[in-house]
Design brief:
This protein has 180 residues and is mostly helical. The protein is built from 8 helices and no strands.
Length: 180
């Protein structure tokens, strides 16, 4: 604890009104980007916009209290919404809680076992393929929202196939808003 307070004093040495103003502006900028993003991730993962908002606020407070690092991702990512939509559909929001708890336990175990170096063995094409695949899953999941249509099916491919079966009748208002 002594080392923590010494580090805290070192961090805030020379802190003044100008630095406070910069920090406030940075906070407002992050807020302007993160909160709408959190709303969208809440909806796209199958929960509600309110769930995304509450999660972003609670996560922000927890991250602020526990500290962070410049190399640490401490916000929501599109990859997670693609993973969570399947969990929400099958197990509900309780399943998301359990999955997040299990993921946290795995991350702690990997950190304690110093397994972070293993990521260097994953080739860049695999990482790019994973990222591109997630982007496709997210984009396919938003087809109904973009075109203002309703499809049937539990997977993205089933939903696309149902568009052909049910007839594809896009609405101009959602397409215009989506294009903007």
């Amino acid at each position: 604890m002594k080392q923590f307070f010494a580090s805290l004093r070192s961090e805030f040495a020379g802190y003044n009104a100008a630095r406070l103003g910069g920090d406030v502006m940075a906070g407002l900028t992050v807020c302007a980007v993160a909160l709408p993003l959190a709303l969208a991730f809440g909806v796209s993962s199958g929960a509600s916009a309110a769930a995304g908002l509450v999660t972003a606020i609670v996560a922000g407070v927890v991250i602020a209290l526990l500290g962070g690092a410049s190399y640490q991702v401490s916000g929501p990512t599109g990859d997670m919404s693609a993973v969570l939509v399947g969990i929400v559909a099958r197990y509900g929001l309780q399943g998301v809680f359990l999955a997040c708890f299990a993921a946290g336990a795995l991350l702690l175990a990997a950190g304690l076992l110093r397994l972070g170096k293993l990521i260097s063995f994953i080739p860049m094409p695999v990482i790019m393929g994973f990222t591109s695949g997630i982007a496709l899953v997210i984009a396919l999941g938003q087809v109904d929202n973009f075109f203002g249509t309703v499809s049937e099916g539990s997977t993205n491919l089933e939903k696309l196939a149902s568009c052909a079966r049910l007839g594809f009748h896009p609405q101009w208002q959602p397409v215009l808003i989506g294009a903007l």
